[in-house]
Design brief:
Length: 383
């Protein structure tokens, strides 16, 4: 059964089925995307159901930043969030554009939501903020009614689990993002997690086809990813954030993982937000689809309310997302970045006046020296 969703700033996103059926008959997928994105000739009125970009007055009066209309905590609540990576002084870099802009997203427990968008749209940044990895103002991002950055018990208890990127760590004198690939068996990683139900542990290991005797320095990237996923799923999470976690898995591995996660949503009413660019088999996994472009949430809707995805036909999601991405690329403004602005941002991001000037001067000297060497070499060749 689809789980309701409310997104502040959007009107009637769960949608009237008759309205969306009408759109399916009269508009192409590109036109539909433009309407959801706020483009095209969509007339914005408070009484027209096809205007999906306006605030739903009824929803606004029955939901809050922390609770849904039934008084229950949202699984995930993002409330008018703006975010920029800070400079060396801890403040946003002057003149820099926020990576996340006016983001509003509310997901109820039991939601399996795909977070989609082009590279650089802000998906990973948003997931890391939700996972408590970046500090944001109070009340802007709530997980189960709590703030992940300030309330570390969310992650230490296992209620919130974030799995993304490669399994890496920083090692002194060796560098950053060193792959975790020591000479130890997978069982050492998985047995080290305390308080895990043995039946759940076996179920996860079987679903991901993990051999506990694998030596971590000998396995493939895909096998290492399976161990990473098993490790991150051991505790009975209530909110799960996934960022491109199936890139190394084969088709069967992805299918079994999605089946397991869908069962988790249905049986335990947990909330899953999954950013991915791999769409095979996801038509039956997702209850909702959210599309991000330029750091802004363009729309978030139930799968059944999207005309081309209502049937959940295999391959339909890939075709639809390709249309959305092409339309987003067409509508995306092109920016020209001047050298002066780039240098100003570099200066504000920790470069001192003297250091920056010295570096540029040395660079100019180096270029002149290289030019002289080339000229001398050409002269020798001519002789």
């Amino acid at each position: 059964m689809p789980v309701p969703i409310s997104v502040t700033g959007f009107k009637n996103l769960a949608g009237d089925q008759n309205v969306h059926a009408e759109i399916a008959e009269t508009a192409s997928a590109g036109d539909w995307f433009s309407k959801m994105r706020g483009g095209g000739d969509v007339e914005k009125t408070s009484t027209t159901a096809t205007t999906t970009m306006d605030v739903d007055d009824e929803t606004a009066t029955t939901t809050t930043a922390t609770h849904d209309e039934n008084g229950q905590f949202w699984g995930i609540a993002v409330n008018d969030l703006d975010f920029s990576y800070p400079g060396i002084d801890g403040a946003p870099i002057p003149g820099s554009e926020p990576l996340i802009k006016g983001m509003n997203l509310h997901l109820k427990p039991g939601s399996c939501c795909l977070l989609l968008g082009a590279n650089g749209a802000g998906k990973t940044t948003l997931l890391k903020i939700m996972g408590g990895k970046h500090m944001v103002p109070r009340e802007k991002v709530l997980i189960l009614g709590r703030e992940a950055f300030y309330d570390t018990s969310l992650t230490s208890s296992g209620d919130l689990s974030y799995i993304g990127g490669n399994w890496q760590r920083d090692v002194a004198f060796a560098g950053y993002n060193i792959p975790l690939a020591g000479d130890f068996p997978a069982s050492k990683m998985l047995d080290g997690i305390k308080g895990v139900d043995p039946a759940r542990k076996k179920r996860i290991i079987d679903a991901l086809d993990v051999d506990v005797e694998w030596r971590m320095h000998q396995v493939s990237d895909g096998q290492r990813r399976r161990v990473q996923l098993a490790w991150g799923l051991m505790h009975e999470f209530k909110v799960l954030l996934l960022d491109e976690i199936t890139v190394d898995l084969d088709v069967l591995g992805r299918a079994e993982l999605m089946k397991f996660l869908r069962q988790e949503c249905e049986e335990r009413q947990c909330t899953i937000l999954y950013a991915t660019h791999i769409f095979d088999g996801l038509e039956k996994f997702a209850s909702h689809v959210a599309f991000v472009a330029g750091g802004k949430l363009q729309f978030c809707k139930e799968m059944e309310s999207i005309p081309s995805l209502k049937s959940r036909k295999p391959g339909a999601l890939l075709k639809e997302v390709e249309i959305w991405l092409r339309e987003d690329a067409r509508l995306r403004p092109r920016k020209k970045k001047t050298v002066r602005k780039s240098l100003e941002q570099a200066r504000n991001n920790g470069w001192g006046e003297g250091r920056l000037g010295s570096t540029l001067a040395k660079g100019e000297e180096l270029r002149n020296g290289i030019s002289q060497i080339k000229n001398a070499s050409n002269a020798v060749m001519r002789c």
